[in-house]
Input
Amino acid sequence: MSDLVTVEDIKKNEVVKAYIKTANEHLGEIGFTEHGFRHAGLISNLVSNILTELDYSRRIVELGQIAGYIHDIGNVINRHDHDQHSALITERLLSNLGMDYEEIAMIIGAVGNHDENFGEPVNPISAALIIADKSDVHYTRVRNKEFATFDIHDRVNYAAKKSFIDVNRESKTITLRLEIDLEVISVIEYFEIFLTRMLMSRKAAQYLECDFELIINQSKLL
Output
C-alpha cells in the first residue's frame, strides 16, 4: 500500500494549484466573490478545527482538511453543479495519487454534498465542511470595487468584518459569531440571503451531535 495522502501533498499538487487558480479566475469573470487559495486554505483549517475539537481521529481530521481544500475545484468547469464537478475531479485526482478507496469515498461524499441546494451531511467530514464553508462571509472576498454596483451577495460579504466558529465540546455547541456593519446591510437582509445556509449548518451540527448557534453583533439569532 502506498503512503497515506496528506493535505500537504494536495497543496503541492500541480493539478490542484492550476485548477483552483483558474476556477477562481472564472468566477471573477462572472462576478462571484473570491474562491481561490485564501478560501481553500481557510475552509481546510476550519474543518480541521471542528473535527479536532469534537475529538475525531487524526486521519479523519486530515481527510477533512483535504476535502476542505479542494471542495470548490469544480468551478473550473462551471459554477452550475460545481459540487458534483468537484467530486468527480477529486475522485480522479485522489485515485491517481493512490489513496485508499474508502478514504476517497468519504471525501467525494463530503465534497459532493457541500452546496446548499442539494447537499446533505452524509458523514462527519461533510458535516464539518458544510459548517466551515457557509461561515466564510468576509469583506475581503468582495472583488467588485464599485460599491454602487454591489449586488446583495457583495453587500452581505462587504458588511461582514469578522467571522469566527467556536466549537464547545462540553456543551456540544457550534457557534458562528459574526460582526457586521449595519450601515452596509441589515440583519434581515443577511437572513434573506443566508437563511438556507444557516439551516443547512444547523442540520450539519445536528449530525455531529451538536447544536448550532448564530450570533451577530453579540446578539443570538439562532
